[in-house]
Amino acid sequence: MTTCITICDTCKRAGREEGDMARTDGEALAGLVEAAAAGTGLATRRVSCLMGCKRACNVAVQAPGKLAYVLGGFAPTREAAEAVVAYAAAHAESASGQVPFRAWPEAVKGHFVARLPPLEGES
Ligand code: FES
Fold it and tell me: How many angstroms separate the alpha carbon of residue 3 from the centre of ligand 1?
Protein backbone atom coordinates (compact mmCIF):
# COMPACT_ATOMS: atom_id res chain seq x y z
CA MET A 1 0.00 0.00 0.00
CA THR A 2 1.23 3.45 -0.84
CA THR A 3 2.37 5.65 1.99
CA CYS A 4 1.04 9.17 1.68
CA ILE A 5 2.52 12.34 3.14
CA THR A 6 -0.17 14.88 3.92
CA ILE A 7 1.18 18.40 4.26
CA CYS A 8 -0.74 21.29 5.77
CA ASP A 9 -0.37 24.14 3.31
CA THR A 10 -1.87 26.80 5.55
CA CYS A 11 0.61 26.56 8.42
CA LYS A 12 2.22 29.83 9.48
CA ARG A 13 5.16 29.83 11.87
CA ALA A 14 5.81 32.48 14.48
CA GLY A 15 7.91 35.27 13.01
CA ARG A 16 6.65 34.60 9.52
CA GLU A 17 6.06 38.29 8.93
CA GLU A 18 9.83 38.76 8.84
CA GLY A 19 10.19 36.34 5.93
CA ASP A 20 8.50 35.46 2.66
CA MET A 21 4.94 36.80 2.83
CA ALA A 22 4.06 35.66 -0.69
CA ARG A 23 3.15 32.20 0.54
CA THR A 24 2.56 30.40 3.80
CA ASP A 25 5.25 28.35 5.51
CA GLY A 26 3.07 25.32 4.84
CA GLU A 27 3.02 26.03 1.11
CA ALA A 28 6.78 26.35 1.15
CA LEU A 29 7.22 23.05 3.01
CA ALA A 30 4.69 21.32 0.76
CA GLY A 31 6.64 22.33 -2.33
CA LEU A 32 9.87 21.04 -0.83
CA VAL A 33 8.28 17.75 0.27
CA GLU A 34 6.70 17.25 -3.14
CA ALA A 35 10.04 17.83 -4.82
CA ALA A 36 11.84 15.46 -2.45
CA ALA A 37 9.16 12.77 -2.91
CA ALA A 38 9.17 12.93 -6.70
CA GLY A 39 10.06 9.54 -8.16
CA THR A 40 10.05 7.74 -4.79
CA GLY A 41 6.68 6.05 -5.16
CA LEU A 42 5.37 7.95 -2.16
CA ALA A 43 2.14 9.91 -2.53
CA THR A 44 1.73 13.47 -1.35
CA ARG A 45 -1.26 15.67 -0.87
CA ARG A 46 -1.96 19.09 0.55
CA VAL A 47 -4.68 19.92 3.01
CA SER A 48 -5.66 23.14 4.68
CA CYS A 49 -5.12 22.68 8.43
CA LEU A 50 -4.35 19.52 10.37
CA MET A 51 -5.41 21.35 13.57
CA GLY A 52 -1.89 21.61 14.87
CA CYS A 53 -1.53 25.30 14.04
CA LYS A 54 0.44 26.19 17.18
CA ARG A 55 3.22 23.78 16.23
CA ALA A 56 3.49 24.64 12.52
CA CYS A 57 4.52 23.24 10.10
CA ASN A 58 2.62 19.97 10.27
CA VAL A 59 2.55 16.78 8.21
CA ALA A 60 1.01 13.33 8.52
CA VAL A 61 2.37 10.00 7.28
CA GLN A 62 -0.17 7.26 6.71
CA ALA A 63 -1.07 4.17 4.69
CA PRO A 64 -4.06 1.82 4.85
CA GLY A 65 -3.69 -0.83 7.53
CA LYS A 66 -0.64 0.78 9.11
CA LEU A 67 0.16 3.01 12.06
CA ALA A 68 -0.24 6.66 11.11
CA TYR A 69 1.93 9.46 12.46
CA VAL A 70 1.50 13.20 12.82
CA LEU A 71 4.61 15.33 13.00
CA GLY A 72 4.93 19.05 13.58
CA GLY A 73 7.22 21.91 14.40
CA PHE A 74 9.07 21.87 11.10
CA ALA A 75 10.65 24.85 9.43
CA PRO A 76 10.07 24.93 5.68
CA THR A 77 13.58 23.80 4.79
CA ARG A 78 14.98 21.26 2.37
CA GLU A 79 16.53 19.38 5.30
CA ALA A 80 13.14 19.00 6.97
CA ALA A 81 11.44 18.01 3.72
CA GLU A 82 14.06 15.39 2.90
CA ALA A 83 13.84 13.97 6.42
CA VAL A 84 10.04 13.69 6.21
CA VAL A 85 10.33 11.91 2.87
CA ALA A 86 13.05 9.57 4.17
CA TYR A 87 10.89 8.75 7.17
CA ALA A 88 7.87 8.14 4.93
CA ALA A 89 9.96 5.84 2.74
CA ALA A 90 10.88 3.81 5.82
CA HIS A 91 7.20 3.78 6.82
CA ALA A 92 6.38 2.40 3.36
CA GLU A 93 8.94 -0.38 3.81
CA SER A 94 7.53 -1.37 7.20
CA ALA A 95 4.68 -3.89 7.30
CA SER A 96 3.15 -2.20 10.36
CA GLY A 97 4.22 1.36 9.63
CA GLN A 98 6.46 1.36 12.70
CA VAL A 99 9.98 2.52 11.93
CA PRO A 100 12.77 1.58 14.37
CA PHE A 101 14.21 4.61 16.16
CA ARG A 102 17.66 3.84 14.79
CA ALA A 103 16.24 4.33 11.28
CA TRP A 104 14.66 7.72 11.98
CA PRO A 105 16.25 10.57 10.07
CA GLU A 106 17.85 12.95 12.56
CA ALA A 107 15.65 15.85 11.49
CA VAL A 108 12.37 14.12 12.42
CA LYS A 109 13.45 13.40 15.99
CA GLY A 110 11.50 15.53 18.44
CA HIS A 111 8.80 16.29 15.88
CA PHE A 112 6.37 13.45 16.56
CA VAL A 113 2.99 14.61 17.82
CA ALA A 114 0.70 11.58 17.55
CA ARG A 115 0.60 7.95 16.52
CA LEU A 116 -2.73 6.55 15.41
CA PRO A 117 -3.48 2.84 15.10
CA PRO A 118 -5.10 1.65 11.88
CA LEU A 119 -8.86 1.25 11.90
CA GLU A 120 -10.16 -2.29 12.36
CA GLY A 121 -10.54 -4.02 9.01
CA GLU A 122 -8.45 -1.42 7.22
CA SER A 123 -5.99 -2.82 4.74
S1 FES B 1 -2.82 25.78 9.69
FE2 FES B 1 -1.49 24.04 9.61
S3 FES B 1 -2.28 22.80 11.18
FE4 FES B 1 -3.63 24.49 11.17
Answer: 21
